[in-house]
Protein 1
Amino acid sequence: MKNALTVAEKIDNPSSQTSALSMIADTYGQINDPKLAQEGLKNALAVAEKIDNPSYKSSSLRAIAAAYGQINDPKLAQEGLKNALAVAEKIDNLYSKSDALREITAAYGQINDPKLAHEGLKNALTVAEKIDNPSIKSDALREITAAFAQINDPKLAQEGLKNALTVAEKIDNPSYKSYALREVAAAFAQINDPKIAQAILQQTRQKLEIIVASRITTTHLQWELIYLLIPTVSAGIFLLVLLKSRSPLNISLTGQLIVVFPEEYVANLVLLKKRMKSEQRPSWYIQLRMVQEVLELILANYIQIPLDNLGLPSIRRKIDK
């Protein structure tokens, strides 16, 4: 393996070098000798750190981090992941950094030692907090909070999620802040301590309500209405066209929505509305929340997914001409 690593270090092509490093890292991850595996991955990490291309460096780091997660020695695994995290933090490209951070976070979640896992995730959270892009920061928080929830120690999990909650509150963009807070709330729900989960979920729900309510203030009411009116009308027209084209029959609104959206999504919308009514939420709050949820479904199912698939070959087009 040392010879293979020496050869990989001399490869000029970054793509080929990354492939070689990934294979070497995977092999070290399967070695039933923690010290030998840790030493080999440490050398592989040194080679990966010298890669200039951020995307290939991130790919190499992801493979190395996954291998560290397989080492059957919590201390050695945590030490190696700490070094990998230091390398990932230096990546300039935010997307590449986020990809590496996600894999490192997942590897921390596999460490079978609550204290070491908590310490590692705390370091990962510090790196995520420094990310300026609210979307990328929100995605990073999702991974970190999910890993915190898997820690088999309610107090440590609670402490870590509270720190994640603090970071989420500092996100400037209201939409991404709301998304991050919902992920934190979901993570708290997984903690094996219902009292802790219930208390924090209540706090998180209040913060979400503040975000929604703050977007409709007396001073900015006219502008907020205009801001909401444009996408709402557009979405309404778009939804109407879909319903007319797909469902000419005279059926209920729920039935019509099922024609447009997956049935489980519609069921969640119905349950959400019933819950808000049972909680005696104001009508404007219910309407705004339902509009927000429907818009997110439209954007996800009919805009974002098609955009993501633009680069993929269509069944109507030949891949090779």
Protein 2
Amino acid sequence: MAQQLALEKLSVSEHSPGPIGDSEGLFRALDQPIHFQNGELTPTAFGDAEARGLSINRTSHISIDGALSLAIERVKRVNQRKAENLSQSNSQHAAQKRRTVAYTVFKTLDLRMVLREGPDVARRAFGVYDTAKQEDISHGDVFFLLTERQAWRSMRSKLYELAKPGLVVLD
């Protein structure tokens, strides 16, 4: 884990404005309607942190409106790709379209302070990494750092609790 945490202090792209600082705000778009039940956000909305990295935008390098625009464009591309794949397969099953449903903003330090208490030591649950892209210098990713399955469900719930105060549901 020490090696994973050391990577937080590095930039991974020539387009990067630098490593993500503790005081930075992190924007996360929520674009899958299945992550809402009865109008409420569900913890499953943060599953990408375990599987492939939870994409975020650094609010010190992009406005909320700018991050929302990027999210909306990404959703359009995903829906277009799904529609093309559906027409090529001649399937009658229409996949549920994504749409930008909500977003949340939380602080990097709050995320880095989520700890998994163990018998001997508390370990950090999440790493926050600069993964800037040429087309989006504000891009970063949040990864779950632990390996225990039960730890994931517990830590995902903590991430969910961090996200709720900054949640903005869109029309």
Protein 3
Amino acid sequence: MSSATDGMSQESPIRYRIPLAAGIGCYVLAVIVGMFPLSDDLGSGLLILLWIVHGVLLAVLISRLRVSIETALGAALFIVLASVMSVYVAGTARDDFTLQSRGERVTATVVKERLDPPQGRQARHSHYTLKQQDGTRVPGPEMDTISDLYNVGEVLTVIQDPQGKLRPETPGEADSTGDLVGAGAFALAALGAVAWMAWRGSDTAKRRNKEKKKSPSGTQKAYKAVSSSHTTQAEQEEKLRQALRTFPPDRRGYIKLQPESYPDVSQHRAARIAWEMGLRPEAVGNRGSWRFGETVMEAVPYD
């Protein structure tokens, strides 16, 4: 009876996590689609507030995939940034498509050029005032380019907006294909982050890591063979307890030990011993060592 219950408890998180990850992915897509029309109607302050609320909600949802809160926050930040870029690039593609649909090709002359003021290493945009051959100004805002492409007096073929709402652009710049691909790529990156979090929190990944860390590593086995260490696991565990009691912490508050000194003690078992002594084992950034502290970025699960 108990084995059947244990099997159900191991399968239920997996069944629960798959629809949760799918729901988070649908939510991310819904936000991207919903923020696309709102980006023109709402002020920047309100948009920033909405994106922050979206990020907090994402972090809460992703943490339900059984990843650490630090990992969930990092993933939520990445997804929000990718979503913002997707909405921005999609807006550029929409303007280009609109200009191609209702725009008119005209021959215009550059009559004025101005550069943005320098801001560190940021690229300076060039702005051009254009006039048609009959002397009338090309309607809409000034034509804008990332670099200085044209000179005063140069004659160009541009697409102008008869309604005067969109900037004039050359036929090559008004192509929306690249922007559409870019917007889709950013959206896929956001969805990929959700899938990665679901995989990272899956029981399969956790079980794989647990099996990898359960037995002594190759380095530990090699150290034991070379050093001809005949100490038992119990003696090594007592040695580990003594080290955790007496070794001074470094400037970051970690007690740093070498796992080769305890060849029969797995990292999970060491984590359990540290937990019994009021310490937590660090799971990231160890570079081959074991680090223990009162507070850590991400703790190693213990046996």
